[in-house]
Amino acid sequence: MNTFRELSVKDTGLAGKNEDIQNILLSIFQSSYDGIYVADSEGVGIMVNQAYSRITGVKSEELLGKTMKTVVKEGIVSESVTVKVLEEKVPKTIIQTVRGKELLVTGNPVLDESGKIAYVVTNVRDISDLNLMKTKLRQSIKLSEKYLNEIAELKKTEILHMHLDGIVGQSPEIMKVFHLAKKVAKVNSTVLLLGESGVGKEVIVKYIHQESDRADGPLVKVNCAAIPKHLLESELFGYEKGAFTGADNRGKPGLFEQASGGTIFLDEIGDMPVDLQVKLLRVLQEFEITRVGGTKSVEIDVRVISATHMNLEEMVENREFRRDLYYRLNIVPIKIPPLRERKADIVPLAFFFLNKTNKKNKLNKRFDPEVLHIFQEYAWPGNIRELENLVERLVVTADHDHILPEILPPHLLEGINSSHPLKRTARSKGTLKAIVENVERQIIREHIRQFKTTRRTAAELGISQSALVKKMQKLGI
Predict the structure, then answer these.
(1) Which of 114, 115, 194, 308 is in the most buried spot, having the most CB atoms within 10 Å?
(2) Are residues 208 and 257 in the same domain?
(3) Do residues 393 and 459 both lie within one domain?
(4) Do 311 and 178 belong together in one domain?
């Protein structure tokens, strides 16, 4: 077989040329860090440098004088870029496997004077190290994403605790509300909060205020339903001295003036008298107020958030609420779902209120798992406010540290699904002894399912393990 030098000179057409030029070209060919392989127009290997053998582990004798199709058939390479170039007549790049190594292979056609392919020059690069680095990078990115997600979750929880006075929110439904609230907090658009009583509208107001550029300014809350109608105007807009009998001789700034530079929250806006709605509309349009008994307008810089549990659209149709004011208030409506539609928040909220009441009263009460199941089944018509009040009542009235289903108010059981085991037990007929045994049986089974062992179950129920075992035998568990 011809040597590399003989093949190089003969087949590249350099014979008879200047020897120095030949030596330079051959030196460049051999000194290339990348592997180089050259085939003729038939795909037969005619030249290969030492770097190719170093990178691939394939000796020159295994390639030279053979077509690349033969080399592929022999299993030396997975596929041939030379064949692709000859077939498609354009430069090609592929990932090629040569004896277990992944290589980046680029083939370029060399054309003769007539425009036909005379040779195909192939460059080979080992990408094993690159793949290893890529794998490590992917692993590093995944790990980073994991840590970032964990940090994001912690921050999310931390933000909610920090801004919402500990009111917990983790359901997708309430997180959508907070996402929208955070977006509108950065602008001064008027916001209308909609939802049933007790869903936590005031919590959203605090969140919007604290996330806004007005966080350092005042947050003034006004319950339009709690202030007598004849006093509401002077409370909102203030009054000049001598404006009416009993008025302060110095006059008094209204709540809008007091909120300047910050946020004013008009709760229960649906209860505002119609005649006062006209003046509120002017405030929202002009951002200036006129005190009762005054003639001068006072400019104010205030963000207005209003809230109602009423159907304002229906009130507009019934002419109980001004249409123009409704549109002015309803620029960004935020609907807060009731607690029954965000069940994922019920248990975290229950534990928050439990810990809060325990700390306040220096107690150590805890929920029976069945109580939490009932909480999740119940519809909570009074929403978060009802849950908070009930938890406080259970904590302060329970005779033992363990809050059991038996002390729940009857309406809670009436409000849960009729198929619930405890409800079926409560409606059971029979003697008092039989009913009590049914309740005990249900409670013990639920605890065994949760805590797995009699020892842990006994500890949770506040009795000895032997007493629990005897009771289980007696109850046929």
Answers:
(1) 308
(2) yes
(3) yes
(4) yes
My answer on whether 178 and 285 are in the same domain is yes
- Collect all residues with Cβ–Cβ distance below 8 Å to 470 and sequence separation of at least 6: none
Asked whether residue 230 falls in the same domain as residue 91, the answer is: no
What are phi and psi for residue 220, nearest 5 degrees? Answer: -105, 125
Q: Are residues 90 and 8 in the same domain?
A: yes
d(CA 467, CA 471): 6
Helices (H) and strands (E) in the chain, counts: 21, 16
Rounded to whole angstroms, the Cα distance separating 206 from 167 reads: 11
pLDDT at position 460 is: 80
User: 206 with 351, same domain?
Assistant: no
Give the integer Cα–Cα distance in Å for 176 and 184. 13
> Which of 139, 163, 187 is the last residue in one of the domains?
163
> What is the tens place of the pLDDT at every residue in 352-401?
899 999 999 999 999 988 888 889 889 999 999 999 999 999 999 998 88
* DSSP 8-class letter at 64: B
pLDDT, tens digit (0-9, with 9 covering 90-100), for 113-135:
888 899 999 988 877 656 665 66
Report CA-CA distances (Å) from 143 to 135, 150, 157, 189, 412.
Answer: 12, 11, 21, 40, 46
Q: Determine contact, residues 237/290, Cβ cutoff 8 Å.
A: yes
237 and 119 housed in the same domain: no
User: Per-residue pLDDT tens for 50-86?
Assistant: 888 888 888 888 888 888 888 888 888 888 889 999 9
Domain total in the chain? 4
Residue 244: pLDDT band (50, 70, 90) is: low
- Could you give the 3-state DSSP secondary structure of residue 226? coil
Around 317, how many Cα atoms within 13 Å sit in the side-chain half-sphere? 3
Three-state DSSP class for 165? coil
Both tokens assigned to 214: 């007005």
Residue with token string 């810990």: 355
Integer Cα distance of 379 and 417 in angstroms: 9
Question: Can you give the CATH number for the domain in which 20 is found?
Answer: 3.30.450.20
Say if residues 451 and 457 touch (Cβ distance below 8 Å): yes
CA–CA separation, 70 and 65 (whole Å):
10
From residue 386, give the alpha-carbon distance in Å to each of 10, 154, 161, 356, 376.
Answer: 96, 28, 20, 15, 13
| Other Cβ atoms closer than 10 A to 160 | 20
What size, in residues, is the chain? 477
